[in-house]
Amino acid sequence: MNEILEILAQDARIRPEEIAKLTGQSVASVKKVIEKFEKDGVIVKYKTVINKDLVKEETSFVRALIEVSMTPKKDVGFDYIAERIYSFPEVKSCYLLSGSYDLLLEIEGNSVQMVAGFVASKLSAMPDVRGTVTHFLLKKYKEDGHVLKKRKQKQKLNISY
């Protein structure tokens, strides 16, 4: 992968001036490369990783992973159905898989009932969806390569005789 992309993947807030120092390129050159990556769709979005378990809000949320088995459409394969599914606002991520299931969805909702309603009324009702398996996320330890909450080291007590 490109050196500038690797740096931005680790820290999206890093300034072009800092990237220029790290890579030995001019600031103008770095800015031009970044602008081209943005224009070409290589850089889709700059993202902050948030540990949502630590955010205290009045409204709660539920996360689920849903495995979807489906029948591909003639001439368009899985893409047509995947596009219809990832268009739902509840779907945060959508991946085509190899193995027993075809798609893996990451869903967020306000409650278990909301996620269940999405699966029952929207997802399972689609004619090309053959089956689903829903896994509710209980705790997230690591996201995008970043540990969300470090475990506290237990301190050993000094014992003297």
Describe the structure in your own words.
The longest helix is centred in the first third of the chain and has 14 residues, at 27-40. The model has no long low-confidence stretch (mean pLDDT 88). The chain is of the alpha+beta class and 161 residues long. Strands 2-3-1-4 form a 4-stranded antiparallel β-sheet. The chain has a two-stranded antiparallel sheet with strand order 5-6. The protein folds into 2 domains: 3-40, no CATH class; 52-139, 2-Layer Sandwich (Alpha-Beta Plaits). The chain is built from 5 helices and 6 strands. It has helices at 3-10, 16-23, 27-40, 79-86, 112-123, and strands at residues 62-70, 91-96, 103-109, 129-136, 142-143, 146-147. 31% of the residues lie in helices and 21% in strands.
Keywords, separated by commas or semicolons:
single chain; 161 residues; alpha+beta; Alpha-Beta Plaits; two-stranded antiparallel ribbon; 6 strands; 31% helix; flat
What is the level 1 CATH name of the largest domain?
Answer: Alpha Beta
Q: Output the CATH homologous superfamily of the largest domain.
A: Lrp/AsnC effector binding domain/regulation of amino acid metabolism (RAM) domain
Task: Using the coordinates shown, work out and report the CATH topology of the largest domain.
Answer: Alpha-Beta Plaits
CATH architecture descriptor name of the largest domain = 2-Layer Sandwich
Largest sheet: 4 strands, antiparallel
Order of helices and strands: HHHEHEEHEEE
Number of DSSP strand runs: 6
Q: Uncertain runs with pLDDT below 50, 5 residues or more?
A: none
Whole-angstrom Rg = 22 Å
**In percent terms, what proportion of residues is strand?**
15-25%
Overall pLDDT score:
88
